[in-house]
# Entry
Amino acid sequence: MGGASVFKRFEKKYLLSKEQYGELMKASAARLKSDDYGKYTIYNIYFDTPDFRLIRASIEKPVYKEKLRLRSYAVPTATSEVFVELKKKYKGVVYKRRVQMSYREAYYYLMKDVHPFEDNQILKEIDWFKSFYHPQPAVTLSYRREAFKGLEDPTLRMTFDTDILWRRNSLDLKNGAYGSPILGEGVRLMELKTSGAIPLWLCHILNGIEAFPTSFSKYGTCYTNMISENRTQKGVFYCA
# Structure
């Protein structure tokens, strides 16, 4: 098993049109640089209870919410390094804890409850989450990401997600990226991640292009789409 990481930051999301994205990148070109990874694809499995308790609670915008996911930055093999992540949000502050391990270890840990040989505080938190919620694979989400960081403030991170695809079947990251899209053509999901307030220069640019924060959630959108599809097919949603 690999290392463990803890992140604490503020996050804001924006849905940008193709035109807004172009204006933003032009106006902020002198303030940003591509991060160490540039453009890449992210593959996730989100975990939830059989009745989708976690995402239903999250949609209600509580003061505190949490979620568990398995993340990879490439289509994994059994020995590829992946991340088991526990993400919490309290009063607008995001706390992300993640543990690196092989895909095989992650599979047996999350699906078969076989604990990794190594132990640490983050795994103990994930263990508690698992014992309390008994989560199971719920949705596979993949997307293309373009990432930048601030030149003056390296703690500022700006990411743009496109080609966001989700599926409820074949919940195995080894099957790659495919599924139903959740964004319209040309729309990008931008996320600003900072250790404090958004820089004034960036606020001015965002106001100028009329880009405003949204509570958009990838997994939440998957869930609402799932409800809609099931109502269309069956008349009612089986777990509503």
